[in-house]
Each structure stands twice: as C-alpha cells, then as structure tokens.
Amino acid sequence: TAGSLAEEMGYGVYLVGGSIRDLLMRKPSPDIDIVVEGDGIAFAQELSKIINGKVIPHRRFGTAKILIEIEKNGEVKRFSIDIATARTEYYESPAALPKVETSSIKKDLYRRDFTINALAVKLNTKDFGLLLDFFGGQRDIKDKKIRVLHNLSFVEDPTRAIRAIRFSEKLGFKISKHTENLIKLAVKMSIFEKLKGPRLYEELILLLKETLPHYSVKRLADYGLLKILHPSFDEKLFNELVKAHETVQGMELLFLKEKYRKEFIYLVVLLWNLKSHEREEFLKRICAPENVKKQLIENITSAEKALQNFPSEESFLEVYKLLSSLNIETIILMMIYAEEQQKRAISIYLTKLKEIKPLLRGEDLKKLGIQPGPVYKKIFDEILKEKLQGRLLSKEEEIEFVKKF
Ligand code: ATP
Q: pTM for the full model?
C-alpha cells in the first residue's frame, strides 16, 4: 500500500531505524518508522485514508503519527506508524530533485545515532525491498558493534552516550573502541555538562526500562557519566539497584493486580540518597513531567515516613493499617530499604493480608439494628483484627461476632 502510494505521489518512501535493525536480527519490532522524501504529513494523510487510521500531525517537525486499530478474534490491537519528512535543506529546491532523491535519505540517515540504526529499506513498488546501507550498518550488526557515524556525534547530541549503553546492554553488542574513545574524550571536554532537558529524561527512562538496568548504570559509572548525572551518584548505587531489581523480580512472581512502572522504581532509587532539594533540582534538570515529579517525590516521602513508623512488634493489624493506605510503588520502595523483619511483614501483607477485608457492609450493620456512627469503624476494625488472625471466614461468622460485640 505504502509503496504504490509513494509512486503515485512521486515520493521516495523508506522504512528506517530500529525496525530494520530488528528485522536483520530476526527480532520482532514494536515500532514502524517511515521516512518520506517529500511531504511526510501529506503522505501520512493519504496512507491513513487507505489503511483506515487516524493521523496526528506535528507540523513544526514535518512528522505525523498514524494510529491504527485492528480487531482480530474479538480483540482490539492498537499500533502506530511514525512518519517523518526526510531532513534535508536541499528539499526547498525542486530543480535538484532527481539528484536529491537518494541524497536526502542519505542525509537523513547520516543524522542518526549509530550505524545499526542508520539502515533503510525502500518501500516504493519500483525498488521495493532495496536495502540502503551507507555506513556499514549490516557489518556492525554482524560484528555486534555500536558505532557512531562521525566523530562529532556526541558533541551534536550528548544523550547518544546513554543510548550507546542502552543498545549495548539490550542487544548484547560492544561499543566500538573508537566510539568508546569519543565518549571518553567528550567526558574530558565536558561536553556532557550540557546533558539536561526532556531528552535526557526520556533516554534515562528508556535505559531504566531495560531488563537489567543496574548493569547499564554501572556502565554509565565506568564511562564517568554517572557523576555527570549528579555529582553525588556513585557506584554504591549499583548495589541498591541490584536490590531494587531483586525486589521487582520478586514482585513479578506475586502477580499483583496493581500495575506500576518499574523504571520509576529505579529512578527513585537514584534519588533516594539525595537531599530533598537535590531531588527537586535533579528532576527539574532532566525535565521530568510535573505529574511524574510530584508522584515520585510523594512516594519517597511516604516510604520514608512509613519505614520510620513501622510497627516494632508483629501486629498484623498495625502492618495492615500502615500499608493499606499506600500505593504499590511506595510499598515496593519500602521493601527495598526495609530491615529483614520489616521485609517479612511487608511480604506477609502482600501475599496474605492485602486482600482481607470485612464482608459486612454498613447496610448489614443497619439491618442488625445498629445505628450509624463512629461505632461502625470500631466494629469493622474488630472484624478486621479477627480476620487478620485467620478467624471469621464467612459472612455468617462475622454476623455472629457483631451480635456478641
Ligand atoms: P528501540 O527498539 O529500543 O525503540 P529504536 O532504534 O526504535 O530502538 P528509538 O529511540 O525509537 O529507537 O529511535 C528511533 C530511531 O531514531 C533510531 O533507530 C535512530 O535511527 C533515530 N534516533 C533516535 N534517537 C536519536 C538520537 N539521539 N540521535 C540520532 N538518531 C536518533
């Protein structure tokens, strides 16, 4: 579809970036990135008419997203296609168009981060499937190498250093010696002092989303990049991230109903030992979205407070009372930093106590002739206390208990 539309509109259209890399590595690829030598937004609009999608254009960047919903066996699957206009200044001059056709995709690819991400496959029906590899991306995939396209790559965009580590960990590739030297040189030249802003936040989150983020953070430290993120970040963080990772893995085995984002747990571990104004400053520097910033700070504060107020003796009711008002992220954080006895109590809460609550409701008490008032809370607390001890399993037993109360 895209290929014949490309021919009709007279544009060169290419599949680019990570999806080609994944394709060559025979891995499933979640993203579809398309680059158009022409008007990317117009192409997205025409394509979406054919495939029944919804277009979200970003005129400032000449890009568009097509959202598609496909129903299969009663299940709705959503995915998106990102469409960009090939970035080249030549484009203004139609007279140069024939010559520019290949050079504009080449220029677009030259602006990318690593050779393995700078491959393109032509989608036009005429040359369908033609693989463009100007910078040795196929060879680097074969050799498992992360390599930048030119010496100024990190000067141009310092966040690429974080991406290099992410891809290296994610794909099991080595960062090439030359690229490694360029990172070290950039550190020496204080290029990374400029590392800030929303792109830094996005890359940090992507890094922490990977399966073993503690290794990536160790690699950041090896390159001297961790101190650049924050001067007080050091290798001790690695051990804390290992603990966090073990906790997150343990949580996965519990099949909790609540969803949480593990990358935020790791981000909080980075922040944990900072003073409160330093946390604020760090989150501001990386331009974490306001709602995320607020939630993370709130979680840290609640977890610290709850750990301080943790019941010293093993009272299920007290543990229940403390933890039931907290969100799952806060409880996971507590689990990371808790002492052994506290950890055991939190585990019991998550595996056994959490789901326990009185089966009777207010209206049941009313039916039993009890007038609404503060006594209701007292009754529910007493029922809960009994249930937490493993008694009063049925509603009838709860009624009998209330009658005696
Ligand atoms: P993943 O599968 O992990 O998402 P990806 O390659 O699709 O990997 P994205 O972050 O989605 O990674 O980026 C898509 C493409 O955009 C990359 O393949 C790369 O070509 C280009 N790109 C992204 N970030 C940069 C950057 N900082 N500098 C240059 N090119 C970039």
A: 0.86
